[in-house]
Amino acid sequence: MNFEFYNPTKVLFGKANLEKLGEVVKAFGNKALLVTGGGSVKRNGTFDKAVASLKKSNVEIVECDGIEPNPKISSVRKGVKLVKEHNCDVIVALGGGSTMDCSKVIAAGALYDGDPWDMIFHGQENVYIPQKALPVITVPTLAATGSEMDGFAVINNEETSDKQEMCSILLYPKYSIMDPVNTFTVPKYQTAAGTADIMSHIFELYFDGTPGKYMQDRVMEGLLKTCIHFGPVACEKPDDYEARANLMWTSSWAINGFLACGLTSLWPVHAMEHQLSAVYDVTHGHGLAVLTPVWMRYILNDDNVDRFVNYGVNVFGISPDKKPYEIAELAIQKTEEVFEKMGLKLSMQDLGITDESHFESMAERAADGLD
Ligand code: NZQ
Ligand code: ZN
User: Helices marked H in the chain — which ranges?
Assistant: First the structure.
């Protein structure tokens, strides 16, 4: 299908680039809201390095810490209040996807008089489409969501137990400073969940039914092989630069718009997982790892079995001489093995979910906006 492609994020990739943060931020303003999560960046030294660089360039800092995984709308409101009180002119996100997403919505909310939840699409009739936003600079510390190079943000409304997204060209970070060394301290569980998240972003597009995407399919197979190879390596050897660097760059390319060109995918697994995260507060990537093999077996049919054959043969090296459904089932089993090899358990019970009473309303919300 016809498409437009534009990604405005400038990437500085590699070791020691954090030293340039102050210089980069200074080009956008003099006072930065520095957004962080629950403390990992303070423990691993990233925060101190960021602050030193900002100070060196005479950028004033207003701190907004404590952004939680599955970031809450109340944290967005807190950030917006700080920006307005202190007249910050640029937002710096230092952390994982939750911190980056929260920062993006703060950036748009800071220039809007209403409540930021109005901008998050949650089935309401009139979604507020922001017309402007403050510039966002991201320093990702976890390879997973790709938020460092896309225009999405996913926010949890703790009052209504709903988790939904917003999307705008205004939300693309102006710059992303990506140093794989900053991900050395990511624990095994988050490394595994992050890798499963990257893989899921690719699956949502790879199994999309739009015909004629030969080039993107081959690229996606390469990105999947990268995750399958380096995810387990990073889990076992957290300071393996090659593994961390390959995962970090793959996380950006899985969702920066390139793979999605001309496709129609509705991202069904993500729509379902966001409800799991909203209601049961599960780790996004782990939720996806549980759902993915089940979803694959559910959608497998005569129309798409060839896509599963390509996946099995090109990604896992399964013999093309086997029968198509046999290859498909083997490929799904190998997908499960990859997740398990990284230590992820694959049942709802393993996510701590035993109560099914919310499933119907979750299903309705997952389908919000879909025909
Ligand atoms: O909070 P802190 O203390 O920073 O610790 C975090 C958190 O506990 C920790 N962590 C991050 N970097 C670390 C580290 N620990 C040690 N060393 C480091 N270098 O990891 C934990 C998880 O962090 P979080 O930011 O929640 O993880 P992730 O990057 O996986 O982000 C998940 C969020 O992004 C959304 C998800 O729904 C979820 O809310 N997504 C955003 C997308 C987007 N913007 O395009 C797309 C995704 O599909 C996804 O929906
Ligand atoms: Zn995801």
Answer: 21-26, 40-43, 46-56, 73-86, 97-109, 188-206, 214-236, 241-255, 268-280, 284-299, 305-310, 316, 324-341, 359-366
Which atom of ligand 1 is found nearest the CA of 96?
A: 25
pLDDT in tens, 105-161: 999 999 999 999 999 998 888 899 999 999 999 999 999 999 999 999 999 999 999
Quickly tell me which residue has 């760059």 as its tokens: 249
The sign one gets for the Cα dihedral 72, 24, 86, 167 is negative
Question: Helix, strand, or coil here: 176?
Answer: strand
What is the residue type of 96? G
Helices 324-341, 284-299: crossing angle, 10 deg rounding: 170
**Cβ of residue 37 lying under 6 Å from some atom of ligand 1:** yes
What are the tokens at 169? 């060209």
Per-residue pLDDT reduced to its tens digit, 268-297: 999 999 999 999 999 999 999 999 999 999
Furthest C-alpha separation in the chain: 66
Ligand 1 pocket test, candidate residues 154, 171, 259, 344, most atoms within 8 A of CB: 154
- Mean pLDDT (whole number) for 257-273: 94
